[in-house]
Amino acid sequence: MKRLSVFSKAVFALAILLVSSSCEDKLTELNENPNVVDPASANPNMLMPTVMTEVGKQYLNLGYGDVAGVVQHTQKDGWFSGHNSYDWTPNDWSTYYNLLRNNEFLYKRSVELNYKFHQGVALTMRAFLFGQITDLWGDAPYTDALKGDVSNDYILPKFDSQEVIYKGILEDLKAASALFASGDATGYRTGYDVFYNGDPAKWQKFSNSLLLRYYMRLSAKLPDVAKAGIESIYASGVFIKTPAEDAVMEYVGGTSGNSWPGAAEFESDPSEFRRRKPAKMLTDKLLSVDDPRLKVWFQPVYVRWVADPTLTVPVDPFIRKNGVIQNGTVSLTDAKYLTEIKAGAKFTRHYNPNTFTVAVDTREYVGVPAGLIDPSSYNYNPTPGQVVQNQHVSQLAEVYRGTKGGLLKARIISAAEVSFILAEAALKGWAAGSAETHYNAGIKNSLETWGVGGQYATFIQHKDVKFSNKLEQIMEQKWIAGWTAATEAWMDYRRTGLPAFKAGPASPEAVLPVRFIYGDNETNYNNANILSALSKLEENPYTKIRGKNSQWAKPWIIQGTGKPW
């Protein structure tokens, strides 16, 4: 009986063990999320479009958004303080680091599979994203930034200096270029590369062009490194030369999230489109040289001012349609103006220059000056505020109401930018060819990008466009060519002070900002490391009120240069 009892206990214990083991297997299966890709079997192709499209949207949202206000490509006449006068608050960078984590996964899987092309893409995107972070904020987590899954020590990563980050960016781009040079696109599946559809040669031109951008970014701080780097890439001949090679992202246009920002199709009232206006500085420059890009980017005013000395009152209280006063009609809606003007109607408003003392802009194209206290009232607008558009100021061209296609692309880097970088390098006396040749190519590439390349021969002969061998002229044309991609114009302004922008009367300070403000997450949860980073920012007369974590505190990249102010 005793043997039977022991045997029975043994069998019972074994049964419990088997049931327990079976339950653990079932629980493990239940804990596996069927909607998440297994890291051990993830295909790098599936990761690329997520990183690339988000990079494109982020960059466009900067260059078409508030940074366009900084460099006075655009101004807003509603919700305008951040855009027009840089009244910024702390700015979180989590979107960039989330993309970097996805990108790091892309890189590691590509290394595991020995996919050289995908490795090169990941290195290029890593360089671009870290470049954006340090360009915009200054010192930032870099060497420890993507190690949070390794150790708790990296949950609060240290900040690396801008110098360390920029040097790392250069090395990543050089490594990417070498991988693309092999021509090996093993593992690539058609359609997953939204920039160049798996063409290593085009990606090498892209990575080398980004190298040119960052070498020039460092030209005041590390001139020997910049000179050698630019000369080497120029000698290789491997960089973007034509608009067909530009790094661009097309919009899908199916939802507001994958469409051009402010697409009218997804707004019951197109207020986002309506409140974004051309800036006076850009509009005036384009007008002064009969620039053919003006009519591509901007619309004529709906109602043009007309001086009329015979008028018996100082100013018309109502608009005129084809010369006939429209009694009782101060303005029409945006939609009504569009319909009437497309049908051939011309709207004006008369004033008597002898009795009307308000200065008005009578031109066909009118931009909004920078940093006005009340921009919606500019040019004697009879309907200030947000309900009706300013009929006496230009709006952006109709194309920018769209969702996708044509000109509506996020442009990461262009042949025009590359040409102007080389023009500047040549002007410095570096071995980079002819400054004039590159300058002319920059203008030609930009005109072709915007569909008016056929007017290049005439435009380049304008006395104020023809090459004058001056940095001011190169930087001005580069600034113009950066339309919708204004971030690079801001970076250029920081290091050169060109063009000579002026802050408007509503700006909290008398000069333009030079960086973003570190976000509250870092201040609240990574305080020791951010305090170290803040200690390296340079205070000046414009940081007195806001302190070191200010949009006017100078980061390393411009410290000691005397620029931009």
Explain what the structure shows.
- There is one protein chain.
- With 565 residues, the protein is mainly alpha-helical.
- It folds into three domains: 36-251 and 482-565, Serine Threonine Protein Phosphatase 5, Tetratricopeptide repeat, CATH 1.25.40; 278-401, no CATH class; 415-481, no CATH class.
- It has helices spanning 2-30, 44-63, 66-70, 81-84, 94-113, 116-136, 162-181, 200-217, 223-236, 271-275, 280-288, 294-297, 334-342, 415-427, 435-449, 456-459, 471-481, 487-496, 520-525, 527-535, and strands spanning 74-76, 140-141, 159-160, 247-250, 276-278, 303-307, 320-321, 324-325, 347-351, 409-413.
- The chain has a four-stranded mixed sheet, with no helix packed on it. Strands 1-5 form a two-stranded antiparallel sheet. Strands 2-3 form a two-stranded antiparallel sheet.
- The longest helix has 29 residues, at 2-30.
- The termini are far apart.
- Mean pLDDT is 93; it is low at 1-32.
Indicate the CATH architecture of the largest domain.
Alpha Horseshoe
The CATH class designation of the largest domain is Mainly Alpha
Please report the distance between the alpha carbons of the first and last residues: 99 Å
Question: What percent strand?
Answer: 5-15%
Give the overall shape, derived from the CA principal axes: globular
Structural class: mainly alpha
The largest sheet is:
4 strands, mixed
What value does the Rg take, in angstroms? 28 Å
Number of strands: 10
- From N to C, what is the helix and strand string? HHHEHHHEEHHHEHEHHEEEHEEHHHHHHH
Strand arrangement across the biggest beta sheet: 6-9-7-8
Low-confidence stretches: 1-32
Could you name the CATH topology of the largest domain? Serine Threonine Protein Phosphatase 5, Tetratricopeptide repeat
Helix content, binned percent: 40-55%
In total, how many domains does the architecture comprise?
3
Instruction: Tell me the number of helical segments per DSSP (H or I, 4 or more residues long).
Output: 20
